[in-house]
Amino acid sequence: xDVRKLLEDVKTGAVTVDDAAGKLKTMPFDDLGYAVIDHHRxxxxxxxxVIYCAGKTIAQVEGIVKNMLETGxxxxxxxxxxxEMAQAVSRLYPETEWNPSARTIVVRRQLAEISGSxxxxxxxxxxxxxPVADEAVVTAEFLGNKxxxxxxxxxxxxxxxxxxxxxxxxxxxxxxIAGMEGALASVVGGLTDRPVIAVPTSVGYGAxxxxxxxxxxxxxxxxxxxxxxxxxxxxxxxxxxxxINRIKQENKPSGEE
Length: 257
Known about the structure:
Blueprint lengths: L2 H10 L4 H8 L4 E3 L4 E3 L2 H5 L5 E2 L5 H13 L4 E5 L3 H10 L3 E4 L4 E5 L10 E6 L5 H13 L3 E5 L7 H5 L2 H6 L2 E6 L5 H6 L6 E5 L11 H8 L6 E3 L5 H17 L7
Parallel strand pairs: 3-4, 7-8, 7-9, 9-10, 10-11
Antiparallel strand pairs: 1-2, 4-6, 5-6
């Protein structure tokens, strides 16, 4: 629930005091038995609660989405979902958007207001890294950011990346997604003064150990300004990038575009 909007609606008369009091009864959370929905998440963190679908049943995902929307949340994001979950939610809410590559469900009732000060750039080393990149893109856009992409520009063909330096230097925050040896994050970190968020992926042959090799390489990067999230965690990278982008917007001098 957007508390500020609710209070503004009461002030303008769009919502009665009694109706507002009824909505506030469900705050700060609703206990569904199998999930406790945190309605204060947006108020505290600037982002509403996001549903992590792995390990949940279809009925549980349906129930959580329904509760969020019925208590005033305009848009809902669910990650690591299955197509069956998306189909079930779509039957309830026809405006549902299913991204099979990102494995995300978005129920969008209004366009997200752009809250970031610049562009979040999502860079992928190889085509096999695209599912993680897609999760990052969906999340960053859901959180109100402009997003650009550079795909398949890994270190095996470094000229592909160097040919797009203009895109790299114009970004506000950069997410670098790579498997194998994870070297791309260090290369990008050495080319820009922008914060770089590295995402190791589970892409690679046996000795990549499901992304552990890339994770350790990124953690040991000699490039300044590189931070690292967990393996395949496109959502986490986008959330951090959005927080950085939003803070830059909030700190921008009045009147500056």
